[in-house]
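Re: [ENG-882] Designed sequences occasionally contain unexpected residues at chain ends

Forwarding the minimal case from QA. Structure tokens:
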């Protein structure tokens, strides 16, 4: 019952890598985003970002039942959701994906308000996930500008 949520929450084990499991999770999101963008375009990636968000809520909730914690470091499916949001409007280009990775990690680490509010106030699965969705939205806005001026 807990095997699938564990695999998804750690994004196939990447969340167990040290140091910086969040960066490993974000990096592990890139090949999937690339394929979705390449073969389905921005709509496919946007739909996948919404789907992984819903899946993450389910998986994180079950993960926290078995392995309690406020925001366990090995849970990186939230980084996957945020990273995919950042890249929704970014064409499959290695340099743009690298910039998108850096931009998302910046916002995920700095937790600019209201991400900081979500991180400090919410608990359970929403508390783990929502700050990364804010970081993904901030990243999406920055990447829209980068792509426009690229």
């Amino acid at each position: 019952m807990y095997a699938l949520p564990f695999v998804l929450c750690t994004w196939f084990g990447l969340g167990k890598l040290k140091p910086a499991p969040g960066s490993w999770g974000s990096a592990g999101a890139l090949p999937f985003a690339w394929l979705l963008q390449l073969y389905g375009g921005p709509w496919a990636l946007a739909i996948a970002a919404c789907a992984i968000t819903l899946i993450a809520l389910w998986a994180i909730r079950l993960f926290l039942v078995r392995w309690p914690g406020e925001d366990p470091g090995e849970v990186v499916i939230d980084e996957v959701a945020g990273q995919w949001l950042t890249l929704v409007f970014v064409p499959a280009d290695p340099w743009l994906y690298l910039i998108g990775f850096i931009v998302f990690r910046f916002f995920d680490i700095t937790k600019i308000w209201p991400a900081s509010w979500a991180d400090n106030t919410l608990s359970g699965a929403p508390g783990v996930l929502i700050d990364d969705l804010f970081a993904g939205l901030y990243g999406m806005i920055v990447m829209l500008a980068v792509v426009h001026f690229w």
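QA comment: On inspection the terminal residues look reasonable. The radius of gyration is 14 Å. Proposing we downgrade this to a documentation issue.
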